[in-house]
Amino acid sequence: MGSARHVPVAIAHDYLTQAGGAERVVLDLARTFPDAPIYTSLYHASGTFPEYAMHSIRASALNRIPLLRNDHRLALPLLAPAVSRMTIPADVTIASSSGWAHGFHTTGRKVVYCHAPARWLYQTARYLGDGDGQPARDRYRRTLAQIAVKALGGPLRRWDRKAAFSADRYLVNSTAVRAAVKEVYGIEAEIIPPPPAMDPDGAAHEIEGLQPGFVLCVARLLPYKNVDMVIAAMQELPDHQLVVVGDGPDLRRLADLAEHLGGSIQPDGTTRGRIALLGRVSDDQLRWLYSRASMLVAASFEDYGLTPLEAAMFGKPTVALRAGGYLDTVAEGTSGVFFDVLTPAAIADAVAETDDFDWEPAEILVHADRFSPKRFQRRIRAAIADGGPGAST
């Protein structure tokens, strides 16, 4: 990992154990500041994006425990102490945080880039789900997390608020998160939306057995992502194929549902057929999927709607829940349509409406360009250069 020397800019993130939107944003920060070391509590190289192998990753002492690297939820009671014991020697630290990274101690200024106040503290039921249909192992882990939050919730919330107020500047990714930060911490934050990370001009790798024109859903398979609602909507759309990209503890339950509605379960637990759950795919495969899809369906309660921007980079419209971060990243009638209630029927109606609409890919691309990587990098550099306001109440 290398010795910890003082640097102009460092990056911090909660844990690098998965491949999601927040981890893509950290890669954008690393492209903006390519010499910056990345501090984190846990680093699981095979669980996150391979590009991290090209950076200097400095993980906490918890990273010596393989069980915790493989499942960061098991580390929940230990993360606050682990993060609090680490000091980042840098003139400026950019803390990419949804619950932990804003608690790192720093020798210089701390700029927090908040993806959301900690869901496990402030939206526990939605974050953990009800456990129905999950394998016994995942239900056990969920129960442990519930016990930990119940026992430690009060102290962790106090730690979390203290960490939030340690910021010299507080940035957020969307209007929804700005409102949540104001409600939870009383902090007035500045919005800097992250860019879509998927470069449409990169290499594309075909996935066999899929015909162009399918409906695409890209999400971690967690209860609050509502992938089950998207799968159920296919019952009312017999002429459509649904392709789901993503992995997570909900895979077994969703595969059973997909099998019931026309998918066939594969040895690895994914499905193929009219409802295809592909699990994790490479970026090259995801480019091919976006380019061949007819539309994206996004049904979760997201703090920032990243996948609609990825679809827009390929000129593809999005069917999205009218909530949260999608209100920032979907331009109704230009880059997509909304459904107002979270039901399979509402999703199916919106998919049918999207089928009938005459979309202009050029207009969708113009919308996506408003969230370009260059704009993000320019604003992040400005945010750490001028100091800016602190965590004002």
Could you walk me through the main structural features you see in this protein, from its secondary elements to its overall organization?
With 393 residues, this protein is α/β, with parallel strands linked by helices. The protein has 2 domains: 202 residues, Rossmann fold; 155 residues, 3-Layer(aba) Sandwich (Rossmann fold). It is built from 15 helices and 17 strands. Helix 8 crosses helix 13 and helix 11 crosses helix 14. The longest helix is centred in the middle third of the chain and has 29 residues. It is globular and about 60 Å long. The C terminus is likely disordered.
Topology (SSEs and partners):
Elements: E1 7-13, H1 21-32, E2 38-40, E3 57-59, H2 66-70, H3 76-84, E4 87-88, E5 90-97, E6 105-106, E7 109-114, H4 119-122, H5 124-128, H6 136-164, E8 169-172, H7 175-185, E9 190-191, E10 215-218, H8 227-233, E11 242-245, H9 251-260, E12 263-265, E13 271-273, E14 275-279, H10 283-292, E15 295-298, H11 306-313, E16 318-321, H12 326-329, E17 336-339, H13 344-356, H14 361-369, H15 373-385
Parallel strand pairs: 1-2, 1-5, 2-3, 4-6, 5-7, 7-8, 8-9, 10-11, 10-15, 11-14, 15-16, 16-17
Antiparallel strand pairs: 12-13
Helix pairs in contact: 8-13, 11-14
